[in-house]
Design goal:
By secondary structure, the protein is mainly beta. It is built from 1 helix and 38 strands. It is globular.
């Protein structure tokens, strides 16, 4: 969560393709295979004009091109997962490729420990992903790149007692085709054709009954970017891009016996998003550098406002247009050779939204476009910071403060559940409001020596203001995290042994819980606390690892990594649910008055030791 924003406010790019779900195993693994990554660029404040469509941050990841001189094989075999990367030349120094894959085998390893007569025999979880890229140098001035990613998480559940089988797959797929052309030493062009896909499915079967629910989003994106350097003091960037969005926010098919339920038409939502931008990195003097940019964005939604009531075949068509100008300005003033002062101001519009009612981000959350009833999100962000290097750049220190105002945020109205909503307009499901977020970020980093690492701490507050939620009173955002601390350390003991550790601490999420349940007649009523009025317990854990590297050989290298995730087995809260507990040990009901609601906290990932053998040749 970046500066008070939710996960939908972060623009995550893999070779320019948008990745909508950036985690495997509910955040335990990243969807990005480190063996295939060349470069990572993180932007929190002062977003340049070439980026848009999100309010909070940019994570821009570039994949490796592949070794164009020799073949290489990298991999690792571990207790939880294994990976393999192969790269090499197709035509030496002219074209190359890289293929990288991973898979967990939690499902395979756990199966021997589940009795064959157990009702849940056959249940399990696994994920896999595949990353590929090829490039071809046409000439000294032209180069082609083709890259792709495909990943899936799959959860299977089987109960032999009642014959229920559940399969839940979800994941991303991306493809990027890029052409680089150098017109002159001063003018460069990058042209891209990009496809992005995120899909979630829920499949359940029992006897002769089957049900399939699926949702997702597809993007077709074309963009052209230019870089022009008229002299050493100016770097001018300009370009355009167009995205065609296709939303599938919730569809279902199924059958019961010989009766098949399948809508005559799978209704989807379609939107067009475009942008033009111009920016200049201008070196005003030897001590002052300025980035000034302007982005013009537009969005058109054409389709049906309602996306749930396909059974009634009662939809409303809407053609809506939004156009906005987004200024970007940042500067860096060099106070001394080792210290600088930075500031930034940005305006951002976001035209697509993630609708969620849970206390955590799940793949079941729905992506929906702006429309006549749902206006684009908007944010004004101000940031200012001081940066200082010490002891011949051995240490880096920084302090940065920010303030962000957000408008047109969306929340489900009180008492509204997505699965129960059959309204013909999203206006009946959502409430709209504003928010603000402010905080201070501190960083101390050690770059040199046998021991390196960093300490980062953020103190922040995010508050939302909705007229139709919480009786109009301000309430904390779900992603309001007052304290956020992360510490990492790496120590090289010798040429063979190195050790590392990571400690993280964060204030618990703000959630809404039932406060009281009561019975009037045969009806059960639930009273809730104020919106996001309950704090889950803080999240914290310690991870440690040790790496042993034997004597290196000429063509073959290997190492052993021993790691422990969550060393003290902290039961960090993932979500909270309620169940009815009988008062006298016998079954009953709330209406009869002999049961009591009880809250249960669900935690995942206790202490997890692992051993991985890494190799390269």
């Amino acid at each position: 969560y970046v500066r008070g924003g939710g996960p939908d406010q972060n623009l995550i790019l893999l070779d320019e393709a948008v990745v909508y779900n950036a985690a495997h195993l509910f955040g335990f693994f990243s969807v990005f295979n480190a063996d295939a990554i060349k470069d990572i660029n993180i932007i929190k404040g002062g977003m340049p004009a070439e980026y848009g469509g999100r309010l909070s941050s940019v994570l821009d990841i570039t994949m490796k091109d592949g070794n164009n001189k020799k073949y290489e094989v990298d991999g690792g075999i571990g207790l939880l997962s294994s990976r393999l990367t192969i790269q090499g030349p197709i035509q030496k120094e002219k074209s190359s490729f890289i293929v990288s894959g991973r898979r967990t085998y939690i499902d395979v390893l756990s199966k021997p420990f589940i009795p064959k007569d157990s009702p849940s025999y056959g249940s399990g979880y696994y994920f896999y992903d595949l990353t590929t890229k090829v490039n071809y140098r046409i000439s000294d001035k032209d180069r082609l790149y083709l890259s792709g990613y495909f990943g899936r998480d799959v959860f299977n559940f089987a109960n032999t007692d009642n014959g229920i089988g559940i399969k839940i797959p979800w994941g991303n797929a991306t493809t990027s085709l890029r052409w680089n052309h150098l017109f002159t030493d001063k003018l460069f062009m990058n042209t891209s054709l990009i496809f992005s896909d995120f899909r979630f499915e829920f499949n359940i079967a029992q006897s002769d009954f089957e049900l399939k629910i699926f949702s997702g989003i597809n993007d077709w994106n074309t963009k052209v970017d230019f870089l022009y350097q008229p002299n050493q003091r100016h770097t001018v960037k300009f370009g355009t891009n167009y995205i065609y969005h296709e939303f599938s926010p919730g569809n279902a098919t199924g059958k019961s016996g010989d009766v098949v339920f399948e809508p005559d038409q799978i209704y989807k939502l379609y939107s067009n998003e475009g942008a033009l931008y111009l920016s200049d990195d201008f070196e005003v003097s030897d001590v002052l550098k300025v980035h000034a940019g302007l982005r013009y964005s537009s969005f058109q939604h054409s389709g049906y406002i309602s996306f749930r009531d396909y059974i009634k075949n009662d939809f409303t068509r809407s053609d809506d247009n939004y156009r906005h100008i987004e200024p970007r300005l940042s500067f860096r003033y060099q106070l001394t050779p080792t210290s600088s002062f930075k500031g930034a101001y940005t305006q951002n519009y976001q035209y697509i939204h993630l609708a969620s009612t849970s206390s955590v981000t799940l793949p079941t959350d729905l992506w929906i476009p702006s429309s006549a009833g749902i206006e684009p999100k908007f944010a004004d962000q101000y940031a200012i910071g001081y940066f200082k290097n010490l002891n011949d750049n051995m240490y880096e220190t920084s302090i940065e403060a920010y303030y962000k105002e957000m408008t047109n945020l969306i929340e489900y109205k009180e008492g509204v559940l997505p699965e129960d909503n059959t309204n013909t307009s999203n206006d009946d499901a959502f409430a709209f409001g504003n928010g603000d977020s402010y905080g201070i970020e501190l960083l101390l980093k050690k770059n040199k020596g046998k021991t390196t690492g960093w300490i980062g701490y953020t103190l922040s507050k995010t508050t939302l203001f909705f007229d139709d939620v919480n009786n109009g009173d301000p309430f904390p955002a779900k992603y309001d995290r007052r304290h956020d601390l992360e510490m990492t350390a790496t120590h090289k003991l010798s040429d063979k042994w190195s050790f590392s550790s990571v400690f993280v601490y964060g204030t618990g999420n703000a959630i809404t819980l039932p406060n009281e349940r009561y019975v009037i007649g045969e009806n059960i009523y639930t009273e809730f606390t104020s919106r996001n009025g309950f704090r889950m317990e803080p999240y914290h854990r310690l991870d440690i690892s040790a790496t042993y590297t034997p004597q290196k050989k000429k063509k073959f290298q290997s190492s052993w990594n021993f790691s422990i995730y969550n060393v003290y087995s902290r039961k960090n809260p993932y979500f909270i649910y309620f169940a009815l507990e009988p008062n006298d040990g016998e079954e009953g009901s709330l209406v009869e008055g002999n049961v009591t609601p009880k809250a249960y906290q669900v935690s995942i990932f206790p202490i997890l030791p692992s051993v991985t053998w890494n190799f390269n040749f």
